[in-house]
């Protein structure tokens, strides 16, 4: 039996419930606190891939993942008239499209994970409550004061409360945190679906460093995404200010910057005000020099948000939660809890570093400012799409998809080796 008896988790998004599931498998009691008054079943399309699929299989959730799949057929690129010039369909067993086999909305995944854990006798979810203050954090225990006035004691406090974690901000040295700004901003929201909309991820690159795209979902609506890279200091300041501003400021800026973008930009802008899930994001990466401090540890975006550019935010959250749970489950009586936290970081940090290593030129290539650079990008994408559909080229240059566990070989933990379902 593990030396850990009780773990307190802040955040009921992705990492928190995955961690709770595996801790409960090891007989550890878990309390999950969530700021929102109810589960937030919102969010845009995300990928589940690699070893994260293996973990979902261990949880018996593969059939549920398939049920919630967005049914996205692949990715195609269009010009300003909506004519596609490059198409990359999902091909079984091949890594030839940005679209993955398991495409799901973030809110659907959060709901799925909550449903899989909410009735476990060792897991207690408490909504509408946050940790106001950590009162004690030493070799004996961690003690916190909650927003309802209650105090709780635990063996460990886990910050699974996202990229701008309150737990991390209040309890970790500021010098441990590095924020890597990618000079890119993204706006996500839901729009009504039209009869002519397809089940493809459609990407349009406008001039002046703008991208407009749309994706299908499993709810009969469509997901719009606008992104922009500021080209001067004045524009940068306006977007950075809007990222911290109110919704009206954000909408006004989007209309100003994307009104002449072309393709279906105006359609999406017209629907923006009616969306109840608009999310305006400054694309920034979180790097934390040390993931734990005494009995407080960060997991998921609070420790290593890789940005949407990587496509690895959700897989990192799932893999990190699994690894942390495994090390806590293996902790022997009498061993300091810092042993498990250090092992979690030692085993998982190399994979995190690999996922966060995004070449600085990638965003600017995908956001050309002038026409000739856009033409060059379109030619490259078209050539790549052709190659991705040519068996001889795929076989020659290694387009075969890796096994699920090749990206991050999962550590073996005895408590988790029973696989539920297929």
TrEMBL record:
<dbReference type="InterPro" id="IPR051704">
    <property type="entry name" value="FAD_aromatic-hydroxylase"/>
</dbReference>
<dbReference type="InterPro" id="IPR002938">
    <property type="entry name" value="FAD-bd"/>
</dbReference>
<protein>
    <recommendedName>
        <fullName>FAD-binding domain-containing protein</fullName>
    </recommendedName>
</protein>
<dbReference type="GO" id="GO:0016491">
    <property type="term" value="F:oxidoreductase activity"/>
</dbReference>
<keyword id="KW-0274">FAD</keyword>
<keyword id="KW-0285">Flavoprotein</keyword>
<keyword id="KW-0560">Oxidoreductase</keyword>
<feature type="domain" description="FAD-binding">
    <location>
        <begin position="6"/>
        <end position="354"/>
    </location>
</feature>
<dbReference type="Pfam" id="PF01494">
    <property type="entry name" value="FAD_binding_3"/>
</dbReference>
<dbReference type="GO" id="GO:0071949">
    <property type="term" value="F:FAD binding"/>
</dbReference>
<dbReference type="InterPro" id="IPR036188">
    <property type="entry name" value="FAD/NAD-bd_sf"/>
</dbReference>
């Amino acid at each position: 039996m593990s030396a850990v008896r009780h773990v307190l988790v802040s955040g009921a998004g992705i990492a928190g419930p995955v961690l709770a599931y595996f801790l409960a498998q090891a007989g550890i009691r878990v309390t999950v606190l969530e700021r929102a008054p109810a589960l937030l079943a919102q969010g845009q399309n995300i990928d589940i891939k690699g070893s994260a699929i293996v973990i979902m299989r261990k949880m018996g959730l593969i059939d549920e993942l398939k049920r919630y799949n967005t049914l996205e057929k692949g990715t195609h690129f269009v010009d300003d008239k909506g004519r596609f010039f490059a198409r990359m369909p999902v091909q079984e067993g091949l890594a030839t499209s940005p679209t993955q086999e398991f495409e799901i909305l973030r809110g659907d995944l959060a709901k799925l994970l909550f449903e899989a854990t909410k009735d476990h006798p060792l897991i207690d979810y408490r909504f509408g409550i946050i940790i106001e203050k950590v009162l004690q954090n030493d070799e004996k225990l961690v003690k916190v004061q909650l927003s309802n006035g209650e105090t709780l004691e635990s063996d460990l406090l886990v910050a699974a409360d996202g990229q701008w974690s309150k737990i991390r901000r209040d309890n970790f040295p500021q010098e441990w945190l590095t924020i890597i700004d990618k000079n890119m901003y993204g706006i996500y929201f839901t729009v009504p679906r039209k009869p002519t909309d397809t089940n493809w991820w459609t990407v349009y690159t406008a001039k002046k460093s703008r991208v407009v795209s749309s994706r299908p979902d499993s709810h009969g609506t469509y997901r719009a995404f606008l992104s922009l890279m500021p080209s001067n200091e004045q524009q940068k300041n306006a977007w950075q200010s809007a990222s911290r501003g109110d919704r009206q400021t954000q909408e006004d800026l989007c209309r100003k910057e994307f009104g002449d973008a072309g393709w279906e930009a105006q359609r999406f802008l017209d629907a923006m005000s009616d969306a109840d899930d608009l999310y305006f994001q400054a694309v920034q990466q979180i790097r934390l020099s040390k993931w734990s401090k005494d009995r407080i540890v960060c997991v998921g975006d609070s420790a290593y948000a890789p940005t949407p550019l990587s496509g690895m935010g959700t897989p990192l959250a799932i893999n990190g939660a699994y690894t942390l749970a495994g090390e806590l489950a293996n902790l022997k009586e009498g061993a300091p809890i810092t042993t498990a936290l250090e092992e979690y970081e030692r085993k998982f940090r190399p994979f995190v570093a690999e996922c966060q290593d995004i070449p600085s030129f990638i965003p600017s290539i995908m956001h050309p400012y002038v026409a000739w650079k856009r033409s060059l990008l379109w030619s490259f994408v078209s050539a790549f799409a052709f190659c991705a559909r040519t068996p001889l080229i795929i076989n020659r240059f290694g387009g075969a998809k890796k096994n699920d566990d090749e990206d991050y070989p999962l550590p073996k933990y005895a408590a988790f080796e029973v696989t539920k379902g297929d």
